[in-house]
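Lest this sound abstract, we think one record worth quoting, the chain in one-letter code, the fold tokenised, each line plainly labelled:

>
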Amino acid sequence: MTARWLLCILFVWVGMLLPAMESDDALPETVAMVDGYPITRDAVTRRLRNSGELSPEDSQENRRAAIRRATENEIYFYLLGRLLAEEKIIPSEEAAALQLAELERALPHGLSALNQIDLKRLAASENYRWNVALQEYLRRVAPEIIAVGDAELERVYRVNQNQFRLPEQYQLGVIRILKSSPDALDRAKTVRSRLQQGEDFNRVAAEVDPEGSAFDETNLLELLRQGDPTLPAGSISRILEDAAAYYLVKVHSKTPGRFIPFAEAAPYLRLQLVSEKTATALRTILTGELKKAKTQFFIP
């Protein structure tokens, strides 16, 4: 399980709730009105610029579609902001960062997490800030919408249990001999013989591969599974190879794969489900707000 679910776009479920409208690059100063509130050209162009959707090579049709989406998103954010203001809730980076910190604490040991740079970027993102603010709003006015019962939590865990399976964990020692070096295969055979006779792996590695080259662990494990899949801990592998080099691998330790138990996964999974339910509720919320609002467009 990763934290990718956090990156969901807040309005992906919304679609085009507003009527289709014609648009062009020649935007008036006020692009639209919502209950008398002006959606300005500056706000729409700023959203377009920040989204990075447009490029000079885009067709006129693509530009019109992007302008339409940006205008609609400005309307959506205005309506949501007005709704949140009734509960004195303002989307903030601080609240988003607090929720991310809670997620980090709940993350079961062994599951991959976003690194600190990604977490800060996510907390600063507009969509995530609004998701967190909407969660708070729903907790106050309609907690049943985002409630996650124990039975539901366990059912989702069982259905998605493979996402909570930790793979085998290895600690490996590696010696690499480039095929471009003289008599590479003979050298690999000699080194393997020395290791099998009991020479210290780390000392031989420092002699044969002094640079201690970094290895992609995923690729190395794939080589090991293909070339010596039953290698026990503490043993020296057969001579493995790819297009560039020969490898000798020692498995220092091997931890079997396991499933993270429900009790350990539940806090993290609950946070995930609340966020997903909030995003799902968004369409219903916006549909209701749009029915009550008077919207006008001034795009030629």
Residues 1 and 111 are 6 Å apart (CA to CA).
